[in-house]
Amino acid sequence: MKKIAILGSTGSIGTQTVDILPAVDAQVVALTTNTRIQILEEQARALHPKMVCAYDEAAARDLKCRLADTEIRVLTGMDGLIACAAESGADIVVTAVVGMVGLLPTLAAIDAGKDIALANKETLVCAGELVMRKAREKGVKILPVDSEHSAIFQCVQAAQGNPIDKILLTASGGPFFGKTAEQMRTVTREQALAHPNWSMGAKITIDSATMMNKGLELIEAMWLYDLPPEDIEIVVHRESIVHSAVEFVDGSVIAQLGVPDMRLPIQYALTWPARVPCKVPRLRLAEVAKLTFFEPDRQAFPALTLAQRAAAQKGDRGAVLNGANEAAVGLFLAGEIGFAEIAERVAHALDTIAYHKDVTLDDILAADAAARALVRAQP
Known about the structure:
Layout: E1 2-7, H1 12-20, E2 26-33, H2 37-47, E3 51-54, H3 57-66, E4 73-76, H4 77-86, E5 92-95, H5 103-111, E6 115-118, H6 121-138, E7 142-144, H7 147-159, E8 166-171, H8 181-184, H9 189-192, H10 202-210, H11 212-224, E9 232-236, E10 242-247, E11 253-257, H12 263-271, H13 285-288, H14 303-313, H15 317-333, H16 341-352, H17 361-377
Parallel strand pairs: 1-2, 1-5, 2-3, 3-4, 5-6, 6-7, 8-9
Antiparallel strand pairs: 8-10, 10-11
Helix pairs in contact: 2-3, 4-5, 5-6, 6-11, 6-15, 10-15, 11-14, 14-15, 15-16, 15-17
């Protein structure tokens, strides 16, 4: 029986992880949230973890009162997240928190020898070289949860040791496929949050609308599969049935297909290398009828070019890209800037903040903070 810690158990990935637990031979030992304590309380009473954490201190005080009749330990803040990741007795840690907050708990879990079911993009985007090196040193497995990286991972399993020549990273195109760069300037918050295929949290949904999500995934893939960014091709696939593919030196392409449902890649990360029955609906190709593929429009979606630039430069550019994007998305969701300004502010941060090639964890955290401050300070 695997012991599992779920960081971000009340979010989209976290709740879907809880949903597939009956199919997984597992015991949950830790759960975390930011402020959604009612959901966390319900999960804690159902799953009986050893410890829980509410990142927000006021929420943690409330949660402690709610769980006073149990023996569950209630923690808070970054120290609480790190304890849930590294000290809960977990064998595998599902990192489903959103944003840079996931980096330190993930590093702590790796240091403690825990395998990682990785759903937190920012961990590899900001510190991919550091994280992958530490995982190799500790003999820790990084098992991807994102549908695209899970697809690549599954294709690699079928390759039987043959090296990948190229990755075909698929993108839904989000809600604004076909719009011009000029039309993108009038996009509203409600329009950007209306994804055609996937049910996700607000920040990730906005990233999908700008296609920054795909740029972040390109950087992740670069580190996960040790390929240069020029060997990772982004292809818009509106149906979200082909979740990604890999090409080999002989020109053969192997793809992973399935309905657009995150429960399958989550479950595979937890049961790998075994496959077990999953409650996800089966793919019926005749009902899908057709699959289409397009080149992305880089003028309408400049975030892709910004991410490729950061991937090529490495160093602290991933941290600058991500920090600036998180801050800009937050401003857009708050109604303080327009949709097109998200990419513009990220570009300004990449142009303005001094570049550092060989970076430590402190350098990464400093680059992230500088990018956020710069974006928020712009008029």
